[in-house]
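User: I'm writing a short methods note and want a consistent example. For AT4G05040 protein, I'll paste the sequence; you return only the structure tokens, no commentary, since I'll be parsing the reply automatically.
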Amino acid sequence: MDSSEAHLDRIEAQGSTDVSHDQQKRRYFPMNLINKVASKLCSRGGDGATPPMGDNESGLEFLNNLKLSDLFHLPGENVQMNTEVFSGLSDGDKECLEMLKGVGTPMACLKSDRGDSVLHLAARWGHLELVKNIISECPCLVLELNFKDQLPLHVAAHAGHSAIVEALVASVTFFSDRLAEEDRERLNPYVLRDKYGNTALHLAIEGRYMEMAASLVNENQNASFLENNEGISSLYMAVEAGDVTLVKEILKTAGNNDLEGRNSNLDSKLEGRKHLVHVALNARSIGVLDVILNEYPSLEDERDEEGRTCLSFAASIGFYKGVCNLLDRSTKNVYVCDEDGSFPIHTAAENGHIRIVKEILKRCPHSKHMLNKLGQNVLHIAAKIGEHNLVKSLMRSDDTKHLGVGQDVDGNTPLHLAVLNWRYRSIRTLASDVKILQLRNDNGLTARGIAESVLKPNYIFHERLTLAFLLDAHAFRGCGSVKSLTKPSEPLDHEKSRDYVNTLLLVAALVATMTFAAGFTIPGGFNSSAPHLGRATLTTDPNLFFFLLFDILAMQTSVASICTLIYMGAVG
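Assistant:
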């Protein structure tokens, strides 16, 4: 294999579209591929002239009398288009084509400062008739790239001009039908990626032009599975968008009838990010979820980058319908833990999704006995995060109230964890039994012992409430003296707090100064002429009233704060 052939293969493998880094040189769909196909055409001794199509109502009359060789008739160096040409293209006037022919420069050589050809610009601005006329005059522009390595097809797809995409697709089909199979695959504009790695299909889905995207999928089966520079394929984007019809169209192209063959074929074709079921769940699209799992049931067992199963992921985001859908298919993943050691029921509890926890318990009663890597059951987790409604629901159920005496790897019961995290609302519910109050952890501490060990002289509101409820539970259950649970608060050290008070005093003084000054510098200023000389310009604007109201309130409160701080400092 010579060096040129090796270079060709490398371009095909990478899907590269860079022809030159010199912006003054022309940029075409891989130049060496065009030259190679053109040389083959010449060697066959024909240019592929076609008879008139005859059906003018089809809208394809612009393809009449085109020759395959016209596609490879590449003009010379670029010429910067002038403002008159650029303006004419933006307006899409009927006379624009005649003006382009009369500028003295071949139409195909004209370029904007961004490297767009006249066909790029006409496609971007949605001038269908102008696009057809330009293709008839300069078919080679169909394969020309701008400085973003985009074909006119990319530009039209990004702008959402369906009719222009159809015209460009018709042009591509016209020329492709006259090429050998091998050359047709080489000159395939549907799989060509721009500098960001996007195909025309990527751009159509990004703009939510789903009908256009479906037509591009039908034109080429491989483009749907190609990744862009961010590792995202068109299939991934369609799933993320929650478009059932488009996802169904794309999956039809994966091929293979047997289940194992389909799975392996999809896996080999799909580039970049996978985890399609997780994406469908995140999009909260039951329709797309059904399409994927009906076609590829084994994807239900797939894990994402964080090691979460599909069921665990649905539980973490609180997608109840998705959880029910997965449980309807199979309950086996309820008993499969993630890489962090959590089961789906724990994940749902950690995120406060009570309805999902109840659904899993209803369908899989044995899941209540499952422990995470810390040895914690679902009640431990609910108590730790302060999910009071879930705690109450579990403790009032005969099937789950026994979880209250469960101990984790450190020997902590749910009551221990509630006290450690000052979850005061759950204390009374968890302390439902003398046995629970008397249980000790591995450090030999009861819930009361933990409260006493972590109590601070100046405890905050949550700590006060937690201690109050724990005191009440001990008194109600008759668990001995509770006097040690309360400790007198110690007065603040005035020397240590002096700097703090001085800082507050400085801030209050600054606010008072600024608000006082703002009262004289009214927004909008004052009228300097009759008949309302000296009156505020915005007198009739209701927003001026709100400005003055809040300015007065800010000044009064800051002055009150100053007086209070000075008084407290004097008393202290």
